[in-house]
Design brief:
The complex is a heterodimer of chains A (111) and B (508). With 111 residues, chain A is mostly helical. Chain A contains three helices and no strands. Chain A is elongated, with a radius of gyration of 19 Å. Chain B has a domain of 228 residues. The longest helix of chain B has 32 residues. The two termini of chain B are 37 Å apart. The relative contact order of chain B is 0.10. The interface between A and B is large, with 42 and 44 residues.
Chain lengths: 111, 508
Amino acid sequence: MNAATLFGLCGAALAGLGLYGLVTNPEPLRKILAFNLLGSGVFLVFGVVARRAAASGLGGDPVPQAMVITAIVVAFAATAMAIALLLRLLQETGRPTLDADNPAGTDRGNS
Amino acid sequence: MPDVLPDATTTDGALLVLAIVLPAMGVLLSFVLGGQYAERIASVLLPSGLVLASIIFVDVWRSGDRLVYIVGDWKPPLGIALRADGLAAAMMMAVAVVICVVAIFARADFGTRAGSAEARAPFAFWILLMAIWGAMNLIFLGGDLFTLYVAIELLTFAAVPLVCLDGRAETLQAALRYLLFALLGSILYLVGTALLYGSYATLDIVLLSSRIHIEPATLVAATLMTIGLFAKTALFPLHLWLPPAHAGAPAAASAVLSAVVVKGSFFIVVRLWFDVMPGMLGAAGAQLFGALGAAAIVFGNVVALRQQRLKLLIAYSTVAQIGYLFLMFPLALDPMSAQLQGGSALTGGIIQAISHATAKAAMFMAAGLIYAVLGHDRIAELGGIARAIPMTIFAFALGGISLIGLPPSGGFLAKWLLLEAAVATGQWWWAIVMLAGGLLTSIYVFIVLSRAVAPSREPLKPVVTVPRYQEAAALALALTSLLLGLIALGPVDILGAGRPEAMMAGPR
């Protein structure tokens, strides 16, 4: 087994764990963490793609590397936004959950 | 491997760059100058965006070919191309119109007077509106799958805060749920791009379409990307986030979210299956897309019928109308070559997207005005409202006519084209779904209207008087939607411009 395959398997495992957590965990904070785990797995897959496509004498194909940098920035921004929303939710309701039967403001209508 | 003609920047190709740079400039300028200026910047940039979209539209329509701009003169696969074919030009035009009218409507709620202090909600609203416009343009023009990924992320980041502009707990919850769905969708899409790049060493749509062939990695990539985009488009059964998010937002924001934002990910699905891999969906896949669409139509309409609140009813109606968009996949499949072909089905699907955009924006704006006047939007207690704001109720009715699909509305033209394709390909079951959907839609539109024109028990006391121009904005979009069917006489053939088939059956 060469390094690329090993990293590929690691990426797949991370993605699988993350996906499982994202789907099954009810708590938003855990979902956000699981999303980051899933993201890390996918970024690793990008790295493997870059390694496998490398021309002779080069460490890796730079295009997937450029893409993964963009993707990491996007994932970081997404995480920041999710955390900000979650904090605001905690301040408003006192509990950071996504329960539909939240007593706060069920009859306050939509503006 | 057949080689495609090399791309080159066409005359007026620079307009495409302008369509993306203008909104971005507006956003940045608003941040620099501060909240007092955001509205004024938007009020200059949005109309110029409309002019720009019109120029691109006319260019593409006249020449019957696409506009191309090669960024930095680096040709794909190394560089990035922006391409405006007929689909992109038509969608850009529709989005520009809807966003401009929504901006007029929003001046009442998010207007900033000269000299007033910076307020959070207007500042955020105008910036997000310009960001959504820019992201949509990038989605329509982007020529490679990774650019589309960035565009769809920009769209999500602009759309999620719009949901919770007023900061109430349940809208925050709705926004968070929306964000989590959207993040799952985008990461699945990203895996797909990684696999495709790993297999074909390019993500450029034109190059990819000439290299792609059926193999396990491609199938996995296509499946993951499609599921991710379905989650963002809120196609049944991944629609759970949509009704609370769209119903809870302020009226102007709901109009943009429901009319424009869901069309972004839908457009990428179209690009993916019609342009990148037209031969890969196959009969079974096309039928599956259609079945999900049909389920969305039936489920969305039935649940809409049972809603007590007007804005939730309109939001569930969006779930149903999204279903129609996916009926075009089985109808566009050519049984001989097993390829997805642009034809009356694709034209019908895109017109459905445009007509739903205009009609649904008008209906959400009308619902916002009804809410403002009554102080609630409970359907059972709408009595007397038609007397108080007749123009708004008229706009709602016209929007409803387009959703039902009565002539001469855009909805009629779309459903007519889809029905024609269903008959031509012998797939009568989709015709039944469409007709049943139209029937259910007409029932809930009728329920709302009959409540609205009923006399009220006690004299109606408006909570606020809504400005005339807000009513006029809703009516203008509703009229656009109603008269959209008339494009059958004119520029409907633009949808075929610059597409590989280069021929497309217009309506007869």
